[in-house]
Every structure is written in C-alpha cells, then in structure tokens.
C-alpha cells in the first residue's frame, strides 16, 4: 500500500481497472470514477483527477483534500455508473515536525528561482585603462 503525507500534493496513486473477466480494461474512453473511504468512513467522491496511464492503468492525481484524514484510504472504482471493484488505495501519514521546520514555502522557492543577483562594480579611475 502506498504511503502519502497528510495534505499530499506530489504522489499520484496508480491503480488498474479490471473487467469482470479479470483482464485489464484497455478502453481509454472508460475513465473510472473514484470514491474514497477515509479511515473507514463513508464513501465520498475523490477531489483529485483520474488520468489514464495506458493499457488499463490509471492514476489518481493528488489533491490535498483527498489526503486530509490520517489512516487508510480505500478506493472504490466505477465505470459508467456500475461498480467494478475496489483497490487498497493508500495510507495517509502525519507530516513530521522536522519537514515542516525546514520546509521552504513555495512562494519563496519560486521567487528565488526567478530572481537574479546583479552585482555592480565601480572601477577606480586609475584602473579604468586596464579593463577593456
């Protein structure tokens, strides 16, 4: 079972879509609907988008609301309104204080990546002839 941190926004959850015959559903137009049962609770629609990886494999793209409750999350899949089965899903783990302590906020990281350090030098008048 995949482990994700609470508020996950980076780890996609892969899962297969099986037909009743046990074969993979290779129809790219048959995108499943995913419902989640968080820690034994009622089924609710997943907030994250479902994306086809190919050959009957799909993934649930991360949305922090899907990983807001600690514990196991069971995935129930349906295509065209009929249930096609369940998948063990994932386990939501609590973020460690160490990660929060040293995390760089996204806005600061983006600002640092987009900024340039510009140095301005003043050349003394008696040295200006040496630099071309």
Biggest sheet strand order reads: 1-8-7-3-4
Distance between the termini: 64 Å
CATH architecture label: Sandwich
Cα shape: globular
Helix content: 10-25%
Biggest sheet record: 5 strands, mixed
The unreliable regions are none
Average predicted confidence as pLDDT: 75
Give the percentage of residues in beta strands. Answer: 35-45%
Number of strands: 8
What's the level 1 CATH class?
Answer: Mainly Beta
Radius of gyration: 24 Å
The fold-level CATH name is Immunoglobulin-like
Q: Strand-and-helix sequence, N→C?
A: EEEEEEEEHH
Describe it.
The structure is a single chain. This protein has helices spanning 97-102, 106-114, and strands spanning 2-5, 13-16, 33-38, 43-45, 50-54, 57-60, 71-79, 82-93. Strands 1-8-7-3-4 form a five-stranded mixed beta sheet, with no helix packed on it. The chain contains two helices and eight strands. It starts with a strand and ends in an 18-residue tail after the last helix. The longest helix has 9 residues, at 106-114.
